[in-house]
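Sorry to interrupt, but I need a hand with the structure work. Can you supply me with one protein entry, sequence and fold together? No commentary is needed, just the two lines. Leave the record below and I will have a look.
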Amino acid sequence: MAIAALLLLALATTVDIVMRYVFASPIRGFVDIASLAGAVLLSACFPYVLSSRGNIAIDALGARLGARAARSLNRFAALVTAAFFALMAWQYLRFAVELKQDGQSIPVLRWPVWPWWAAVAVFVVVAAVVALMTAWSRPEELP
């Protein structure tokens, strides 16, 4: 779903560019919305990438040390990834709260900015949980 929405965002960006240069009339407020929507949509992809184990992994050391060591290294990497995403989620939550307290809004449309970053924080929390789940599961057990 997030991938399809990213494709729609790319298409809308193309339409905005064409309108900007051909008709001298861009989509009002699109630049502001596109940057925030892009952040939300990209963060929505994190849980899937982690659950499908689509992130980059270097298995050279595990291959040399054997299957048991490889599993231990993969578990360690999943725990570090989960900790990283948990730290990111905490920072995004803090950021969203600050934006709400400051009342910051999108310049052109005057929409509040904090809900967008709160959505990013939620997706990053989900990614942290998914990363933690991958620490004790085999690849075939995850969706």
Observations:
- The two ends are 15 Å apart (CA to CA).
